[in-house]
From TrEMBL:
Subunit structure, as described in the record: Monomer; binds DNA as a monomer. Homodimer. Component of the mitochondrial transcription initiation complex, composed at least of TFB2M, TFAM and POLRMT. In this complex TFAM recruits POLRMT to the promoter whereas TFB2M induces structural changes in POLRMT to enable promoter opening and trapping of the DNA non-template strand. Upon metabolic stress, forms a complex composed of FOXO3, SIRT3, TFAM and POLRMT. Interacts with TFB1M and TFB2M. Interacts with CLPX; this enhances DNA-binding.
Keyword set includes tRNA-binding: no
Alphabetical list of Gene3D superfamilies matching this protein: High mobility group box domain (1.10.30.10)
Protein name (database record): Transcription factor A, mitochondrial
Annotated signal sequence range: 1-19
A GO molecular-function annotation: DNA binding
Length: 277
């Protein structure tokens, strides 16, 4: 029977051989999928199949990453937002020479990111490419909606009218039963359903009043948007109503002019017939 040390050495040698073979085969698979330019001696891009490579940080964010831990240790009682503000102030007064190391590191990272992104995209199937394009389109639409909402808030667009239940919930949410938001909302909903008709009528009347408030405010706001040249922010239904009114006005003017022309023509014929007689 072989000594225990000899068996252990054999197992160790076998494990090392298997590890080398596994690494070599993985590298071979990488070289079979990617162009030679994307294959490095210490890196295999197939590890990115779960998602695209992350975009690199710019020079400023690299400086923030370096300085934030330092300032946090030196000032443990200062809030994170104040730390970031202090770092931003330091960055603004730095010379181009002081910023250069961070900018150069960012540039190198961008070049590496381009290579990794090309390698990642080379592995995608047509279905994955289509899915990523769809997700990007959805993200862009979401960002556009957020920017538009912020713009409308800045321009003072009136808030939409609340429903009777929303008014009831705003009044009773804080005192509702439950420790989580979801539990509180369920509690308020149960209380709303248990109200009598005459009790709900109070909130329905408040909701009707809020509709009138919104109708008056949105009308004034849209008139102001027209004055400042922002008709693109007006509701479609308002534009449709204006177009209909304009069309009716044009039709009325056209009918009036036609009637006047007919009347003038008849009057001219009458004068001609009298002269002939």
């Amino acid at each position: 029977m072989a000594p225990f040390s000899l068996i252990t050495a054999s197992v160790s040698l076998l494990a090392k051989s298997f590890g080398v073979w596994s690494c070599t085969s993985s590298l071979a698979r990488c070289t079979g999928v990617l162009p030679p330019a994307f294959v490095g001696p210490l890196r295999c891009l197939t590890s990115q199949t779960s998602g695209p490579p992350k975009r690199p940080l710019n020079g400023y964010m690299r400086y923030v990453q370096q300085q934030q831990p330092i300032l946090t240790r030196q000032n443990p009682d200062i809030k994170t937002i104040d730390i970031i503000r202090r770092i931003a102030q330091q960055w603004r007064v730095m010379t181009p020479e002081q910023k250069q190391p961070f900018e150069e590191a960012s540039q190198r990272a961008r070049e590496q990111f381009k290579l990794e992104l090309q390698g990642y995209q080379a592995q995608l199937t047509p279905a994955q490419v289509e899915q990523q394009a769809l997700e990007k389109k959805q993200r862009m639409a979401k960002r556009k909606a957020i920017r538009k909402k912020r713009e409308l808030t800045t321009l003072g667009k009136p808030k939409r009218p609340r429903s009777s239940f929303n008014i009831f919930m705003s009044e009773h949410f804080e005192e509702a039963r439950g420790t989580t938001t979801q539990a509180k909302m369920k509690s308020v909903l149960d209380d709303w359903r248990n109200l009598f008709t005459h009790q709900k009528q109070v909130y329905k009347q408040l909701a009707e009043d809020d509709k009138i408030r919104y109708k008056n405010e949105i009308k004034s706001w849209e008139e102001h948007m027209v004055e400042i040249g922002r008709e693109d922010l007006i509701r479609e239904q308002t534009l449709s109503t204006k177009k209909k009114l304009a069309a009716q006005t044009r039709a009325t003017k056209k009918g009036t002019n036609k009637a006047k022309a007919v009347k003038a023509s008849a009057k001219g014929k009458s004068k001609t017939s009298r002269k002939a007689a």
